[in-house]
Amino acid sequence: MKTEAAFALLAAGSVLASPTSLHARQQQSLDAFVASERDIAVQRILDNIGPRAAGAGRGVVIAAPGITNPDYRYSWTRDSALTASALDEEFFVGNASLQSTIQDYIYAEANRQTVYNAMGPLYPWGTGLGDPKFWPNLTRFNGVWGRPQRDGPAVRAIALMTYINYLVGNDEVQTAKDVVWPVVINDLNYVAQYWGQVGYDLWEEVAGISFFTVQAQWRALVEGSQIAKLLGLSCANCDTEAPQIACFLANNFWNSTGNHIIANVQNTSTLARSNIDAATLLAPIENFDINGSCDNSQYQPCSSRVLATHKVFVDSFRSIYPINQGIAANAAVAAGRYPEDSYYGGNPWYLCTLSAAEVLYDAAAQFRRQGQLTIDATSLAFFQQIYPAAKVGTYTAPHGFNRGRAGLAWGQSAWGEQSWGCPSSYGSWRGSGSGNGRPAQAQSAFNDILLAMTNYADGFVKVIETYTPANGSLSEQFNRTSGQPLSAYDLTWSYASFVTMSQRRAGQFPASWNSTTGPAAAASSSCNTDGTPGSYAPAVAAGAPPVDTTSCTVQLHI
Ligand code: NOJ
Ligand code: NOJ
């Protein structure tokens, strides 16, 4: 009711010719774009999954349908998992028809795990799990490629554990345990064994240790430890390695001079990089925990380090892309993977620009949940960019402030309180800052800052609206000069990122993964990157073939 009242207020305000009414009108048109593009995105994602996608096996997510400019009709473990996570959440917020696709995804991934590929087999050492790219029918891809990529097993485990949460909440513990967990434990064991070793980053270019990969690995093991217990099992290697990963994370990825997170450490390739990179926003998005801590060591969206990085990252594209010229220094612009990028000439990416929006919706939701936000020397420049009066200090929510719904498990009734696709949950405070037509009792600097953050986030979504063609198709990139879509039309990951952005913008977020109760980081003096060897077996109940796990005889595919 509260929300409806706030919306009624905004609607009434839009009749008046005031700046507020203009803002309200723009808001409504952006809402309409987001609602319609979200539907298109879900549909195009389904079109890119087998057997609907040409030549793709059941549940196999292809990166994009085109075979030229470039040929993306392959299946990447990473793109597939991030897409599955987006679908998990669409399912939870009410799109029941998606469940069979999620089940198909599990079937496909159980199979993928057993493919003997250029990195090796599943058994005995799990090395095959690190290969990033497969043909659409899941046969091995033999071309030269940046491999291994160690984020794949981590993000897949996260997508699958999100679904396990749903199963557990819906009296299907046995299915979770017998069918899904055997896929997950292979990935967790891989993470626990190899996280300290060099691999290629998510952009498949830098051989080193990537912040995105390590963040995802940390979450996978912290969550894996808890999910195992929930199922009456254990993940001993998760318990051993999570504190070591936390230790590594806490001690390696902050550039205090540049005031940003470092995208890659131990870069063994010859690529010179500023290390300013969308990977450092995609990581906190992947690890977003609505009940998370804003402490810097956790790198949650609301941490000062992530917000400082946001500013440095976005600013790095202001002058290099001609389409960003003339845009005010405090307004949203198009963003790419990293400033030095030269792939297809180096352009803005839909998913990277969207990540700049999503991470801010996440951070605002966390501040809102906590009822306060603290600005420190690290985050001051970020806040002053969008709210010039910002000062170092703590801002608290006004009395009676609505902190949003309590963290409930997926599938529980909280989701039912909100109509799917309706951006209403922010209504109660989106319209409650200073200015005309807003409830006076809700005015506060805290509200104003949250409003500035979400308006800034909306700005990135507006950039996407500007460069989305009329048919709603999202490619991988858009040209830095003309703004025309470019490279890999209908990129599945672009759509997935639009969907997760839309969820966060609508105040729909996953249940907490209890990041704050995870094991403490090991002391930096004893931070150990050796990893713990684990065991690997085909997830037969999920549909994997029973590949040999008894002898050392392996078939060679050359
Ligand atoms: C293909 C990769 O997928 C992409 O990320 C990379 O930029 C290009 N190869 C060039 O290395
Ligand atoms: C290139 C991107 O750099 C990489 O992250 C992605 O996995 C592939 N394209 C497929 O979309």
Textual characterization of the structure:
With 558 residues, this protein is mainly alpha-helical. 43% of the residues lie in helices and 5% in strands. The protein contains 15 helices and eleven strands. The chain has helices spanning 2-13, 19-47, 77-92, 99-113, 151-169, 173-194, 211-230, 236-252, 279-286, 304-315, 350-370, 380-386, 427-430, 445-466, 492-505, and strands at 75-76, 133-134, 199-200, 207-210, 254-255, 260-261, 264-265, 372-375, 393-396, 477-478, 485-486. The strands form five sheets. Strands 3-4-7 form a three-stranded antiparallel sheet. Helix 3 (77-92) runs parallel beside helix 15. The relative contact order is 0.16. The model is unreliable at 1-19 and 406-442 (pLDDT under 50). Bound molecules: 1-deoxynojirimycin (2 copies).
